[in-house]
Specification:
43 helices; six-stranded parallel sheet; alpha/beta; seven-stranded mixed sheet; about 1050 residues; about 55% helix; disordered C terminus
Length: about 1050
Amino acid sequence: MCTKYGISYLNEESHHNLDGKPKWCLDIIAVHGLNGEKFRTWTESKSQKLWLRDFLPHDITQARVMTFGYNATAAFENTKAGIRDHARTLLLALGEARNGSSARRRPLILIGHSLGGLVLKQALVIAQNESLYKQIHDSVRGVMFFGTPHQGSGLASYATILAQIPLVVGIDTHPQLLIALKKTSKDLKRLTETFREYMDRSGISVVSFYELRTLKGLMVVEKTSALLTPLDEDPTNEEQVPVNNDHRGMCQFASPEDVTYKAALSSIKRLYESGGLADVASEHHMIPHSANPHFTGRTDIRQQMSDCLIFSRQEESQQRFLLYGIGGSGKTQICLKFAQEYRKKFRSVFWIDASSTETAQESFFNIARACKLEESTDTVKTWLSTQKDWLLIFDNADDPDVDISKFFPRCPESTILITSRNPDLRQSANAGSCKVDIMNPEDAVALLLTTSAYHSCTDNTRKLGAQVVKDLGYLALAIVQAGAVIRQGICSLDGFSELYTQHKRNLLESSHSNSSSEYHSSVFTTWEISIRKIEGNTESHARLALELLRLFSFMHFDGIDKNIFQIARELAYEDEKKGYSMVGERIFADSLLFKIMPSGWDGVLWGKAVGLLAAFSLVTVESSRRISIHPLVHEWSRDRMSETERTTVWETAMVTIARSASHQSEYEDVQQRRRILPHIETLMANEEDRMFAPGPDLRERTLAAAKFMLAYTESRRVEKALNIGLKDLASKEGILDPSDQHCFTIRAHIAANTHLLGRWSEAATLQEHLIADLEASDFSTHSPDEFINMILTAILGLASNYCSQGQYQKALDTCAAGIAKYGLALDAQNLAILGLREVMVLANLGLGNVKEGLASAETIFESRKGRLGGNHPMTLVAMENLGKAYEEAGMFGRAWDTQERLLGLMRGSLGYEHPQTKSVLYRLANLPARHKLPRSRWKKALVYREEVARLLAVDFGEGSLCTVRYKAEFAIELYKARMFERALEVQEGVVRGFEELREEGLGGENLVTEKEMEREKKDLDMMRKAVKVRKVVGWLVPRKGG
């Protein structure tokens, strides 16, 4: 049944498409004016065509069209109050019509005729100030006014005219209304002024249609009154449209070919396409760099993306869109352009380097740091699942072995954009996908002329450009490179094709390129032209630029830091000043970086070299001053080298990266080793065995291997560290004497990592042999302190192994003997001595000598804190041991406070994902269960327990036996805390987990026994009863905090 007032839907047969997804992407509502009616105002009298119903839904199929009716006759008896009342009625009706998560955020276009436009203006003024209507306000894309009398100065004559002309046949003018209208023109003028201020502040788009013909000899609304912008000013947010019709007929159309209808349709489309999702306040915008300023074309792809992700998105589910295609086709640039164009549509935009699991995790850590969260992938995902209106861009998801779906946070009101060479990822793209291939010829020519800085666009210029882009296969990256070649003056536009053909022939005849594809041939050739130009420049910065490009190709392609090269060169210069010979460091001494900067680091020379590479679009310098390279440039730069050159450059990259880090244990040293780990990973992935190949330069190779091992060890990538150590030691057999210091250093690292893998007995044997060989060796060529520190460190490792195996007395005796034999002459603050005393603390605690262990733990902690600082890793180890000592001494309050403070420090310095951080979290979470602590700490520990359960699920799997068993313990702790509903929820998951383990046979032989299964089911029944009792007699079973 259709009523005279309220909202009527003109095309809402169904809310959903056949696939069940919401049908509408846009709402349009039309509001009639004084003496109007919600259907007849918009209906052409002769044809009886209601354009809002008969034309508009066919031209904009994704729009839901509505019309609003109200008692317009009495609307202005009390002008100000009447407008406000009907504006509120409209807002309430819109709120009801747009109920639901999808509808509430759907773009909205308002259309008003005559004084109905004043109702719309008043509604927007109210909505901007009242939170109840905020979502309606934020969704408005624009307003279309048909003959609305904005200027209050003309309203008095307007009222007189209205008395003579009923705007809709059969409706009489209310005489009191006309009196009120004349009396309150100042109020209406004030509304218009308020709305103009709102327009200027919000930037909302307005379309004002004004009549050109009189109605019965009278111009109902003069042009000056129908426009918001005074005639002597240029309109900014207002589109002004003249209508060759009178006041009544200006919003009535007999045919979709009507000129004014076409103008209205065009305006609606423009308003819709300029909006889509409602604008939101930007909180985070973390992208590596801006889109190329010369970005051109790709209109069809960008339109598809905006339709799927902005205008036609479905709010009920997370929207994921895939761009796939060959490398260098422009996928990343399209994403950057999308993020730039629609920045206002997302509260947060985050960029994920999805080229490997490690780089993806590091990207999530960057988000954590920016948002002040735990430095954990899972924590960031959990946080994002509680947010909305964010965009995650997963770039370079090319590796089929990397499951990027595990990085997707669960959140319906969110967007994920993926770029990949792998089309199989289409199965993850629920919002759509698009293959990014060659450019269309017109866009390709435009891109070439823009990047080459050609300002003349004659027919001849376009013809020459068309030949060039055809030669390049219409490939975006090749065209950008060609533009750089022309812009740098290597050749002119008309000479490029000949130059390109010659270089392409040379490239294809060369053995340097292992690419067989025409695509790679096209792109590589343009880079070769740039390289030849730089090679022709004999200045120092050009030579350095070429060397840097080669070195970059063996580092990770993103986040290349100048400090790596600066530290390496400065340390070598310091060594030279101290008189140290570089004879034993041939690789670095022969490098161009060393030779071209004879007086140490030269920042100006570096800047000119990197600037030259950037000028040819071979690298990108980010706002952070870090350098990134397109993955294809990265690959090409390696491929073009001869085998001999690859070896030389790889070795130079190896020693440069290694020299940028030290063996020291200061906080900044640890952080630097952490920063270079992605580059170590890339280096070792390319020619890892070169490090261990026979040949000269053993010292540099061994020192690099030791530092790389340390970096892996500190990040708890222990197996990789151990693998490097074993290969390095094997490569020295028959070359170095077993008693050589380098061999001892490698053996010490191997033993330490074997210990970290939990192979304690094997590690102890390695340490015992190492100590015996050290004591039997001749260290006459080394300083006594160097020898003593080495042997004490080996003794420390052995004692730690004994402690780990529970051989506390043996550990205590080993430490005491080591200090007595080698440490009495050393400073008490010597790090090796402090390390031995720490092991003695643990041994004493293990033996029950709590008082002695506690006193030593406090002394060692204060010593390390004073010498190294509170955040140093070794200080944190001492603090961890102090917490254990407090616990063993029964000082549980101090143990809790110490370990909680330690957890915060470790998260800040090592990160949330570091194994040492997790170890402290596990111990802290279980502390109240082991000892009787105050209720406040016991309940707080539940938060830590839940975090442990989540980490176990991430590390071992949701359905793993250790995860399920831990959750069983967690459920009981929740039950004891009277958190019955949460306990029941966890316990139901525990029972399901055990049942699945038994069904799948993953429990092995009786790992999940019948007895254990029955116990968990009994606990489940107990929790169900508790929840049921609480629901029946809530006063008897108080809730948490009750």
